[in-house]
Amino acid sequence: MFQKLSDLQTKSKTGIYLFWCKLLLAFLHIITFGFSIYGIIVTSKSIWKSIIGSGLLALSVITMLLSISAFVLILIGLIGINMKGKKIIFIIYIVIVVFDLIINYIILGNTTESEYLSDYVAIVEHCEQMLQTNKSTATELFCWDNPTTWSLKQYTRYRTLTLYDIFAGVSAPTTILIVAFIILVFLQPDAFDPKSPDSQPLDPQSNDPNAQNIADPENPDAQNQNDNNKAPKSQDNKAISPPPENPPKATANNANKEPQKDTKPEQNNTKPPAQNQNANPPPKQQQPPDEEPHEYEYEYIEEEDFEEEEDEFVPQ
After folding, report:
1. Does residue 32 fall inside a structural domain?
2. φ, ψ for residue 266, nearest 5 deg
3. What is the Cβ-side half-sphere exposure of residue 91, based on CA atoms within 13 angstroms?
4. What is the CA radius of gyration of the chain?
5. Is residue 101 within 8 Å of 16, Cβ to Cβ?
6. DSSP type of residue 264
7. Are 178 and 118 in contact (CB under 8 A)?
8. Is residue 273 part of a domain?
9. Which of 151, 173, 259, 261 is the most buried (most CB within 10 A)?
10. What is the torsional sign of CA 145, 151, 154, 156?
11. Which residues are CB-contacts of 197 (< 8 A; sequence separation ≥ 6)?
12. Each residue of 210-225: pLDDT tens digit?
């Protein structure tokens, strides 16, 4: 009951229906207040009170007080003012509206067609008596001012059938709306204790990191996607520290430490020396039994070496 439209829109459609129901009830309470003032004006005449009585006047005054009280309470609910005892205020509002409706139905019972005819007959009989006695009173002056049947019927109609029409037109929708209002209020889980504006619902798409880390058993890929989305953000937020300008100074502990030896073998960039062509040929390698050794190649090489040596020692 004590929630704003912005708070009710975040919920289901029942919250919006509740707001419009409160708005219509406030409008009907104002209309009832205006109709009750009209009833007070037309039934407060001395001629009417002396002939018919002041019953309708008293009922109109009670309706005016109850309708304005109900309007103030429903206006508090529309504005959304936080106050203590919300359940008690809700109960008081319902009681006031129920009593207001009861008074309205009593007024309807006293302004029917039969009551109109009986009041008209009472006024006609009273005027006949006043005219026979020839008393100079306000009632006699009224009878002289309204000598015709039509004028007396109009006078009675404004105080009976007209009141019936206006109160019937406001009592029926008020009864329907108050029943719907009670149902909609109890459909709201936090109608009397609304959540604070700082609290946010647990939504996977919210900014709450705890809400994003909740695993969804039906959609396991959503958790991995959230983790991947969070990783670049955390890296971007970190400031890149520049490299130190000066190397760290050597300390006593560092000086005592022996330099670490490079365990990696040194790479020998020198090329192996060229083999002498006159050197003995390498020994024959063992070949698999399936293949025959190529001995003719080695014999040919030996013959070439021998001829070269003989050429060198030939005298000129």
Report:
1. yes
2. -70, 140
3. 4
4. 55
5. no
6. S
7. no
8. no
9. 173
10. positive
11. none
12. 544 454 555 555 555 5
Q: Using a cut of 0.85, tell me whether the model's pTM lies above it.
A: no
User: Does a structural domain hold residue 282?
Assistant: no
**Residue of 63, 67, 89, 65 lying closest to 76 (CA atoms):** 89
CA distance 80 to 1: 8
List the structure tokens of 159.
């105080």
**Does residue 261 lie within any of the structural domains?**
no
- Residue 85 belongs to domain spanning: 11-187
Counting residues of the chain whose pLDDT is more than 90, the rounded percentage is 32
Number of domains in the chain: 1
Q: Using an 8 Å Cβ cutoff, are 174 and 27 in contact?
A: no
pLDDT over 70, % of the chain: 52
pLDDT digits over 99-138, tens only? 999 999 999 999 999 999 999 999 998 888 877 766 666 6
Residue 316 CA to residue 308 CA, distance in Å, equals 16
Q: Which helix (H) or strand (E) holds 297?
A: helix 295-312
d(CA 37, CA 167): 12
Q: What are phi and psi of 194, to 5 degrees?
A: -70, 155
Backbone angles phi and psi of 169, in degrees to 5 = -70, -20
Instruction: Record the tokens describing residue 85, joined without a space.
Output: 């005892």
For 215, the token pair is: 């695993």
Tokens, residue 198 = 């700082």
Alpha-carbon distance 261 to 267, whole Å? 15
Residue with tokens 């109890």: 186
Q: Which helix (H) or strand (E) holds 74?
A: helix 55-79
The DSSP secondary structure of 196-213, one letter per residue, reads PTT-----TTSS-HHHHT
